[in-house]
Amino acid sequence: MRPNNLFRILSVALMVLFLGSANLCAQVKVLLVNPGKTDPAIETVHGPNIALYDPSVPSRHRLYFFITGTGGSAVGSERMDSIFATWGYHAISIDYEDNVIAVACAHSLDSTSFGRYRDAIVTGAPVSNKIKVDTANSILNRFQKLLVYLVKNDPDGGWGQFVKNGQPVWSRIIVAGHSQGTGHAAYIGKMFRVDRVFMFSGPQDYMDNLHRPAPWQGDKSATPPSRFFAFLAMKDPFNVHHQIANCMMLMDLSKPDTLIVKPGETIHGDYQILINNIPTKWPHASTLFPEFENVWKYMLTAPVK
Questions:
Q1: Is the dihedral of CA 153, 156, 157, 162 positive or negative?
Q2: Structurally, how many domains does the chain consist of?
Q3: With CB atoms 3.0 to 4.6 Å apart as the test, which of 6, 56, 151, 300 could cross-link to 27 if both were Cys?
């Protein structure tokens, strides 16, 4: 199956999985924000941004910023975001230009291809021949403008704790992503010292023809490597062994730090790479299945430096 077709199928599957969460998390406040309302220069790609929190539970004073995978919409992550909200986290998912898959760079002989692809989407720099995104439509601008909008338009929501002088307070932000979004989350973690980085089913930044991870993943990181966590699927069609190699570089590990996990089981130990091997038609999406709340909680609470 071609990667583009696979991602279309996965995006539909995730939409079905995550929509309809309101009945499960009745106290969660859900805000849908048209991207153009936060900045007239921002274009809508798939639909509105989504912001959530649960006013009925004590705040943990942390923001969970989730970046969707290829073809995914922000509202498609509502169920996962809602679960984090019930645990006391504010949560945001943004609409952004995610239609060009990361593996488009996999067969390039230019070792900088993946890094330039990430830079283009995250910052809007005109550096990639795979995708063109201007500064206004970059992930960083979309996120920053949404936060500023929420501070102004939802004054009782507590969003101000995540903004200082108009910019995100990265030390209070957990940056997470699925599939394509994992690399963007990791790239942001390299740029800013965030609270933690969560990578679900990725990154895919492996140079197939050069037989090694894309070198940007070994660049100096503002976020300590111990704060990077990955949740992968053994049967992922995008090659779990390549994903592990990428994670090892991001985490500065000399050997795999992996643990097979099961739904509902308490996780003991000190691991950064968690892997499931459940029977499913959707292994690439399985890391986002709500039955793995135990894994998400471990990633939130595991010791870090």
A1: positive
A2: 1
A3: 56
Question: For the segment 109-134, what is each residue's pLDDT rounded down to a tens digit?
Answer: 999 999 999 999 999 999 999 999 99
Residue 235 DSSP one-character state: T
Residues paired with 233 in a beta bridge: 276
Distance CA 28, CA 19 (A): 14
Instruction: Kindly report, residue by residue over 93-109, the tens digit of the pLDDT.
Output: 999 999 999 999 999 99
Pairing of strands 90-93, 173-178: unpaired
pTM of the model: 0.93
User: Which residues pair with residue 275 across a beta bridge?
Assistant: 232, 260
Q: Which domain holds residue 48?
A: 3-301
- Express each pLDDT in 62-99 by its tens digit: 999 999 999 999 999 999 999 999 999 999 999 999 99
Residue 301: its H or E element? helix 293-301
Q: b/e for 264-282, b at 16 or more Cβ within 10 A? A: eeebeeebbbbbbeeeeeb
